[in-house]
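Allow me, if you will, to draw on your knowledge of protein folds for a short while. Thank you for your consideration; the sequence and its tokens are set out here:
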Amino acid sequence: MSAESVVAGLARAGLTVAVAESLTGGALTSHLVAVPGASAVVRGGVVAYATELKATLLGVDPDHLAERGPVDAEVARQMADGVRARLGATIGVATTGVAGPARQSGQPVGTIFIAVTTAERASVRPLRLVGGRGALRGATVHAATALLRGFALS
């Protein structure tokens, strides 16, 4: 999915985006800011790789994290809401999941959740992918870009 079309769509719509990343470790933000002019729409990104940072930096409910673990649809939604609020963007996008080499919090490698939120709506996309770490992270960046594009163009 083209980061250029996402950035252009956000700019046309007068929208901004903030990114919360765990699984992708900054790759999604990097993908977006590689586009010339991205500074007009990308507010910033937070890489919350450690579970406790999802609560302290992004406002994810610590009880939910303790009960369900960091690889969860609701965690992804709360990460997107939290980064959107904390960075003052109109859209928040978040990635969380397991890239391997082993299971995490009972979830198998390839279990991924992507969330995109605004003040009015939210979309969480679960993914079950196969491949190595790089392939899983790359596929997640592209899937998140596609989901974000849907929000930018609607």
